[in-house]
Amino acid sequence: MDPNQIAIDALRAAVSAAPGNIELVRQLCELLMRVGRDDEAEDQAKAASARFPDRHNFTLLLAQIFFRRGKDSHASAIVETLLKADRDDASVLLLQCRLQQRRGDIRGAVATYRDAVANDESARDSELESLLGLRDFDESDEGKIPDAVGMPDFDVDGSRDEEDAALPEMEADLSDGFESVGGMDSVKEQIRLKIIYPLQHAEMYAAYGKKVGGGILLYGPPGCGKTHLARATAGEVGAGFLSVGISDVLDMWVGNSEKNLHAIFDKARRSKPCVLFFDEVDALGASRSDMRRSGGRQMINQFLSELDGVETNNDGVLILAATNTPWHLDSAFRRPGRFDRVIFVPPPDAKGREAVLEIQLRGKPTDSVDHGKVAAKTEGFSGADLKSVIDVCVEQKLTEAIATGLPKPIVTKDLLTAAKTIRPSVNEWFATARNHALYANEGGVYDEVLDYLKVKR
């Protein structure tokens, strides 16, 4: 009989007799992994984690197996949950470090590794240090993060041009409101209740002590219209629109990112009513637990201070932000008075897809297009995916027109043929979001994702 199978059977019997023994479970999982039976190892860890939800060792074991199997999004969701419970757990920090290293965040991985070793000297791992390219790592190095190969050193006292970086331009007189956004009726209504009605009925809201302003965080898969929705919000109320990207804020010199951020908020306050929109806000407000020794913490603190209006009044500034990865955003941003309304922006439903198709086909030569039929064949498509369908269709019609010299209008069949060449782009996002919704859903913030996926809780 196969000696590996004999050992596996013996360990299974031992685990059955002592299911709470983490070392036995670990040995069984590692043996199963060594012989290439990864799925069985994962099943064992899941069962142990479900049986003892309060024993973080089982949950960590599951995360380690996910990591070894290349399921990084699964592992990351568990690690984030464990670090919320104990930010100083060296074993969890080491796994976070490996995840950061694998996705190329070497600077973050180095900082995390140093935290792990500072909390537990026995956590030092020469193999991991080699992967990170650390040189002369020494705890007596006055708290400095060690150098890493390929990481340029900057003189934090260096100077740059005295002239401030140009601020993003304010867009005014946006004519397109919510009528330019296909579907998303529920999302539109939440935006109306939170920031549009208070502006349109300021006196009534003031009678109840409600200020004109506030923040909404829009999250969901890419290509589903978050940016377009923010722009349409400004058009809906006739407000100025100030769109802020990463490059408008981040600066390599210490202190300048905070100055840029303050200048942007100041410009919005001087232009109110104004919709201040932060795209990819997770890049500006990443979790501070991931950068405890980084200057980025100061920028995040500045961001929070600006949202609170500590030194000035944000009344009349309507703040919207969008992200594809809300789980990377520092939890402090979701406190009352900041981005206290978190709205899931899913791919459009059938009715929404009809509306999107109708809007995107305006101005193009068409003939009796059955929007409903096309919508039925594009389930799960984002707004960007539907645009790709139309682009492919137009390219095909142009090719035919050039060949025959006779341009023909777009018909339903053309769109259905083009749709067969496009695959929904949101599937990968939902795979990652599902893991966070299952394993890191503190306060039920991602319940809408589970509802959309029809996952039982």
Automatic annotation (TrEMBL):
InterPro entries: AAA+_ATPase, AAA_ATPase_domain, ATPase_AAA_core, ATPase_AAA_CS, P-loop_NTPase, TPR-like_helical_dom_sf. It is an enzyme of class 3 (hydrolase). The keyword Membrane does not apply. One of its GO terms (molecular function) is ATP binding. Keywords: ATP-binding, Coiled coil, Hydrolase, Metalloprotease, Nucleotide-binding, Protease. Gene3D superfamilies: 1.10.8.60, P-loop containing nucleotide triphosphate hydrolases (3.40.50.300), Tetratricopeptide repeat domain (1.25.40.10). SMART domains: AAA. Residues 212-349 form the AAA+ ATPase domain. GO terms for biological process: proteolysis. It comes from the Bacteria. Its EC number is 3.4.24.-. PANTHER family: AAA-FAMILY ATPASE, NUCLEAR VALOSIN-CONTAINING PROTEIN-LIKE. Belongs to the AAA ATPase family. This is ATP-dependent zinc metalloprotease FtsH 2. It comes from Allorhodopirellula solitaria.
